[in-house]
Design brief:
Helix content: over 70%
Order of helices and strands: HHHHH
Structural class: mainly alpha
Shape: elongated
Radius of gyration: 21 Å
Number of helices: 5
């Protein structure tokens, strides 16, 4: 098969999609109809490696943004419960959960920052 404009064949693009979608490499190989030795060879080709890295970054960014959106809603609801619940036990549990959720949000923001820094470093390498 002939490569397209980004240097990948349709089979390579399919392999990348399956590597991101399947739970294991073995399942991805089967779904894409590619042999392990072929994938091993492709992993030495800069165009394939770059495209796989870019696809992983995009997938991470999509999931990361979705998590932050859900987390914002969770924080709002926990804060509401902590302030407005009629039951002291519910308020205390909401406060404890709110504190844990805030710590998790900090972790997610730090993870996103690290991912961006790694991507910048990868792009700046010759």
């Amino acid at each position: 098969m002939e490569p397209n404009g980004n240097g990948l064949t349709p089979k390579q693009r399919r392999m990348i999609a399956e590597l991101l979608a399947q739970p294991t490499q073995r399942a991805a190989l089967a779904a894409a109809g590619v042999g392990a030795s072929t994938l091993h060879r492709w992993r030495t080709e800069p165009a394939f490696v770059d495209a796989l890295s870019a696809a992983r970054r995009e997938l991470f960014a999509d999931g990361y943004n979705q998590l932050l959106g859900y987390q914002t809603k969770t924080l709002d609801e926990l804060a509401r419960l902590a302030l407005e619940a009629d039951n002291d036990g519910v308020r205390v549990r909401a406060l404890v959960a709110l504190e844990a959720a805030i710590c998790k949000r900090h972790e997610l923001l730090t993870l996103g920052d690290l991912e961006r820094r790694i991507a910048q470093l990868e792009q700046s390498q010759p």
